[in-house]
Amino acid sequence: MRASVAATLGIGATAAVIAAALVQTAGDNPIGTALSMSVPAQYKALIEKAGNTCPEVTPNLLAALLTQESGFNPKARSPVGAQGIAQFMPSTWEKHGIDGNGDGKRDVLDPEDAIPSSAKYLCTIARDVKDVPGNKQNNMLAAYNAGSGAVRKYGGVPPYKETQNYVRSINALADTPAAGGGKTASTTQAAAAINAAKGVLGTPYSWGGGNASGPSTGTCCSPRGRSGSNIRGFDCSGLTLYAYAKSGISLPRTAAQQYAASEPVKPGKMRPGDLVFYGTSATSIHHVGLYIGGGWMIDAPRPGTEVRYSPLDTMRDLFAVGRPTSHHSKEI
Questions:
Q1: Which end of the chain is more exposed for a tag (fewer CB within 10 A), N or C?
Q2: What share of the chain in percent tops pLDDT 90?
Q3: 221 upstream amide cis, omega within 30 of 0
Q4: The predicted structure's pLDDT at residue 105
Q5: Could you tell me which residue, 197 or 16, shows the higher pLDDT?
Q6: Which domains can be identified in the chain, with CATH numbers?
């Protein structure tokens, strides 16, 4: 669709997400249970309907794509000219946009047109790349981002870092399980998470390091080329995953997925144990820390540092606060 949009929006390995708490609707209604991801109420029915346009598209996949593209912002505009909730370039909209609500207009800024158009366009490019080797869903998503021609040229997901991250991020969001009625972290669980984080203060930062059992060697490489493969420690989301594992709540691995597994906290309602997310927009979250009260958090900031206490304003782009949920949680 446009090879450079993901890069201009700042999408990286922990790509952005605005999906809130994961939910599951009870009952046997297939529409009601179609989405495990939480989406804004006003778009839910549109996504559930459009997500069944063709076999290659599901409601969760479509919701994940819209989360990645715009954070469900119907007026989003990228620096390269992509517009609306589904981030259509004008030329692509001219060819593939539809009048989804039947009002006689095709408006890229109207979600009632843009959401079904996005699903229809996914179905179109799925057909365009159906004969390309490799994972069909990955190829479809890559074609939405970089164009069908690039996918055909390279015989699969092209070697563009932003497109590869785009595909991984959407798949991770779409595959995140429903919370199954899970509750947000209790104050007891939050306190246990904080105590666990305090217990690893001073542990080295390791890019990709950390799991539910504790510090681990990481991976290569950070955006600036730093490797954690020879360092035993935590990165930011590895630390929060570990801390909450000690409280009985199982979080996903990346900051993006942890945001998706958290319930948004309104201003003035923060409490110790909440997760704080940093980024300039919903599509550029790059850091997560564990709030401990008084304007401070425990976090693993960056390569070359250690797990430490940091003021919330240590970074200028505090974007959101979330309270973890998990269908794997258990009271302690």
A1: C
A2: 55
A3: yes
A4: 96
A5: 197
A6: 5-174 (1.10.530.10), 187-324 (3.90.1720.10)
